[in-house]
Design goal:
Length: 408
């Protein structure tokens, strides 16, 4: 699973996943919601885990989100999650709620758990009812005490082209602590949040309030700083679970190992967010935008989001066209406060704007850089230490094709 752990060092596990922390199991199956692809994933903790979640800001919240919120309102703990892909169970009214409750109850019965220890999540087509006969059969076939042949990370995918998973190992109080994560997301991705599901697990003992604070802060810094197409879904959820099986002293901001824990947690969040942006529908390039020198962090975030969300910027990057005018235009309409005469823009190592005016740059060198699969845009607007980073992807012909045929 990786090299031996080093004191106060992050150790990325070579085959790390959401089930890497002690006491977690996960798997998936094909139950028939989709024609052939895996479509039902499960995540299980041997003991109830402190659990917190954040949800989409879309006014149309899908039924599973409401059921998840009801479960967490009882004890703020979960022991199991059931996640289906291929059908969002969104905009499905009373029947959709009944189906989500039924999924929760079936998993609770299968695992001999209190129903409020089960969370439900769904992703896929909006406005269609779940084929509950198939879902029920799928749940009844699951073995929650053993990892299945099909991974959890595979079963939750929709138009994604690959799994998104990660795990880090650190040392806390001389004990091995692992943080794992999995996510899905490819289209309808826009803050806040995206057509995405994120699941983070850890065996650390951590103060619940500190865990909740970290979830919200890191979600704002990562998942809320990605965009693919400017659309916000009905089902977006990020869940963090801590089951305490590492037996360390409870972590909070006063614990001497708090910095290494939060660094590892941040790495998991950022990796998953970037993988979602990188795997945007039809994408060929990951775009990172770094903004600094603004009066406030909010201004920096607004600028970064405006740039990565601009269709004109995205198409220019796809065509390896150094059209920096599109970047400066996005900055101008971002709503952020800045002095146009102080703007500096660089694409990779090439500075294209200085003090708000065109700078001399090597067109051939920059074009060669833009043809790479990762492109970084740097924006500096002042001398303050306020900054933000956003991630997105290019906009290709395939994006239109994928979404024109999404239901077929």
């Amino acid at each position: 699973m990786g090299a031996a752990i080093k004191k106060n060092k992050l150790n990325k596990l070579s085959e790390g996943s959401v089930s890497s922390p002690k006491g977690f199991q996960a798997g998936g199956t094909h139950c028939g919601i989709r024609k052939a692809k895996p479509d039902l994933g499960w995540l299980y903790s041997e003991t109830p885990a402190d659990t917190f979640a954040v949800y989409t800001t879309n006014a149309f919240q899908a039924a599973p989100l409401k059921v998840m919120q009801e479960s967490l309102a009882v004890e703020q703990k979960l022991q199991a999650l059931i996640v289906n892909s291929g059908n969002a169970n969104a905009c499905t009214g009373e029947r959709g709620m009944k189906d989500a409750y039924q999924m929760r109850e079936q998993v609770a019965e299968q695992m001999n758990l209190e129903k409020h220890y089960v969370g439900v999540a769904s992703t896929g087509v909006i406005g269609e009812f779940l084929p509950m006969d198939k879902v029920t059969q799928g749940i009844r076939s699951l073995d929650f005490n053993n990892k299945s042949e099909i991974s959890f990370e595979t079963a939750i995918l929709t138009t994604d082209t690959r799994e998104k998973k990660i795990a880090y190992e650190i040392e806390v109080d001389g004990q091995k602590v692992i943080i794992g994560g999995a996510a899905k997301g490819s289209g309808m991705i826009n803050p806040k949040m995206a057509t995405m599901l994120g699941f983070i697990t850890t065996d650390a003992v951590i103060d619940p309030r500190a865990l909740d604070t970290q979830l919200k802060q890191l979600t704002n810094e990562t998942f809320n700083m990605i965009t693919v197409d400017g659309d916000t879904s009905t089902n977006d959820t990020v869940v963090v679970m801590a089951n305490g099986q590492a037996n360390n002293q409870s972590l909070d901001e006063y614990h001497p190992d708090w910095p290494i824990f939060t660094e590892a947690l941040s790495e998991v969040f950022q990796f998953l967010a970037k993988e979602i942006a990188r795997d945007g529908e039809g994408a060929t390039k990951l775009i990172e935008v770094q903004v600094k020198g603004t009066d406030t962090i909010k201004d920096a975030e607004q600028m970064a989001k405006a740039i990565i969300g601009s269709s004109l910027v995205k198409t220019a990057i796809h065509g390896a066209d150094a059209n920096w005018g599109r970047i400066i235009t996005a900055i101008g309409y971002s709503g952020a406060s800045f002095d146009p005469n102080q703007i500096e823009i660089s694409i990779g190592d090439e500075t294209v704007v200085e003090n708000g005016l065109p700078a001399d740059f090597n067109e051939e060198t920059l074009q060669a850089y833009l043809e790479k699969d990762e492109v970084t845009i740097f924006v500096k607007v002042g001398t303050s230490d306020k900054k933000a980073i956003g991630w997105g992807c290019d906009l290709s012909y395939d994006y239109v094709k994928i979404n024109a045929l999404y239901r077929t």
